[in-house]
Amino acid sequence: MQAIIELKNASVIVENGSEKKTILDDVSLKIFPLDFITIVGGNGAGKSTLFNVISGNLSLTTGEILILGKNMTKKSPQVRSKFISRVFQDPKMGTAPRMTVEENLSIAKLRGKKRTLKITSSKELQERFLTKAKAIGNGLDQRLNSPTGTLSGGQRQVLSLLMATLQKPELLLLDEHTAALDPKTSKTIMSLTDDVIKTEKITSLMITHQMDDALKFGNRLLVMKNGKIVRDLNSEEKTKMKLEDFYRIFE
Ligand SMILES: Nc1ncnc2c1ncn2[C@@H]1O[C@H](COP(=O)(O)OP(=O)(O)OP(=O)(O)O)[C@@H](O)[C@H]1O
């Protein structure tokens, strides 16, 4: 099967003064269509580095990255954004605060296409958005003409998620996207995420510090430590895993 993303012996070495540090250490990984992979690991394990390497925000020191079989190692984040979208931990990151919800949606429509300064409103996109936003019921559908800076964190994260997925990406990167929300909102956004991923059939990677979410969601689980992938568990192995087993891996 053709992998959506393939990393081949990917390493990133950074220099801190005279010291060199390997922050991604010879990682080889294939992400297949419809994979929903959860990623866990302690602070500094290399999870965000992995995302930055995939999105093109951080260059590999050695190794290769292929997207749909094509070598994209030297391609910019803009080129890769045709294939990849990302939702960040900080609700402020995914949207432009002074622009309204509607204007932000128009930007989402342009993702991956040649960017223009003209921001056009798309009726179809707006209708799709409204249907989904209404179903969530957190009032976002009432705020189409409000600047996104005035939305609650939960509303902004729903908007970021919908913006990242209204135009189906080849790969969705979820970077601890529920971590800054209160427990109830976090739960709502997590079940919305799972629902969107399933109904739109979106291949996804999700970093989380919530072990129960890592076990509950997705079909595959990666554990990272010291810049390496130390476990790559399939669904069956994942279901056998208990929280205690997890904590043992981290020890
Ligand atoms: N651009 C960079 N330049 C130098 N060091 C970096 C860079 N990016 C990350 N690092 C370092 O690489 C290591 C891995 O960081 P990374 O952010 O990938 O960890 P993480 O697993 O996402 O951690 P956390 O759970 O705390 O977010 C850390 O020691 C970090 O300081």
TrEMBL record:
One of its GO terms (molecular function) is ATP hydrolysis activity. Residues 5-251 form the ABC transporter domain. It is found in: Cell membrane. The keyword Isomerase does not apply. It holds the Pfam family ABC_tran. It is a peripheral membrane protein. The keyword Transport applies. Keywords: ATP-binding, Cell membrane, Membrane, Nucleotide-binding, Transport. Its main location: membrane. Gene3D superfamilies: P-loop containing nucleotide triphosphate hydrolases (3.40.50.300). SUPFAM superfamilies: P-loop containing nucleoside triphosphate hydrolases (SSF52540). One of its GO terms (cellular component) is plasma membrane. It comes from the Bacteria. PANTHER family: NITRATE ABC TRANSPORTER ATP-BINDING PROTEIN (PTHR42788:SF7), TAURINE IMPORT ATP-BINDING PROTEIN-RELATED (PTHR42788). This is ATP-binding cassette domain-containing protein. It comes from Lactococcus hircilactis.
